[in-house]
Amino acid sequence: MSEKIKIAFMGTPDFALPSLRRLSEIYDVCAVFCQPDKPCGRGKKIIAGPVKEFALQNGIRVCQPDSFKDYCCDDLLKSIDPELIVVAAYGKILPEYVLNYPKYGCINVHGSLLPKYRGASPIQSAILNGDKRTGVTIMKMAKGLDTGDIISQVSTDIGMYETAGELFDRLSVLGADCLENTIRDIVSGRASYTPQNENESSYASMITKQMGLIDFNNDAEKIKCQVCALNPWPLAFINSETDIIKVYTVVIGSDTDASPGTIISITRKGIEIACGNKKSIILTQVQKTGKRQMDAFSFSLGAKLKTGMKINL
Description:
Layout: E1 6-11, H1 17-26, E2 28-33, E3 39-40, E4 45-46, H2 50-57, E5 62-63, H3 74-80, E6 84-88, H4 96-99, E7 106-110, E8 118-119, H5 122-128, E9 133-140, E10 150-157, H6 164-188, E11 203-204, H7 220-229, E12 236-239, E13 244-255, E14 263-267, E15 270-274, E16 279-288, E17 294-295, H8 296-303
Parallel strand pairs: 1-2, 1-6, 2-5, 6-7, 8-11
Antiparallel strand pairs: 3-4, 7-9, 9-10, 12-13, 13-16, 14-15, 15-16, 16-17
Helix pairs in contact: 1-6, 5-7
């Protein structure tokens, strides 16, 4: 059986790019589906996403339907005629007529160890909840949200201070590796399909800016997870009396009897602040609204912060 099957790829952001790149080296990627272009930045300029850019640079047909409802893309599917559809961070729900079209079905590259963290933010949620391990699942897509049978999984440790951006990059490459092997098994008939255990399922909702507000009444570990999970977007922040301070990186500090939100020390290591579990957190990289990112010590000099001051209370 020839491996040169026709694949339609559906994805939009950076997470999907390693998978698309790998597939284009091995198979006939006959089309790439992306979300419609959206305005970005202060100038609201329309910019193509990384997956679309790769497709255009490599002569792959690009499709950007607004919707798949009411069989509106049936003719498009027939014109492409894929034998397999691969989805990675596409951001659209596929109806049954799409799921049932390809000979080898539709499979999804999902950034968690399903059934844990179905939904929109599996990678951030794993860090936010303090998980020690996560991974990538290749599943056969079904009607529900990330509910399809598991075909393969690969797992990895989460670094103590690993950010969501760093974990995204690692999982995207792991996903591409796993995807290559999984498709080979699907085409050869060796793939196995394991139903998900619904009793172990959980849902990862969309990340919002409001989730970034740091409450120093929380314990230091929880704040550390919050900062790491929300980097690079939307970033954790301190809502001080005078400004919003974005927090990029932190480290766990020492034991303390100071009340939460009290600045314990200011050194070149950073700004040490008491938390709710008699531990401290040290801010190491921060950014004031409208200013550049900088080390916390340098920031403290300009902000005129002093030991014993209260912050964010």
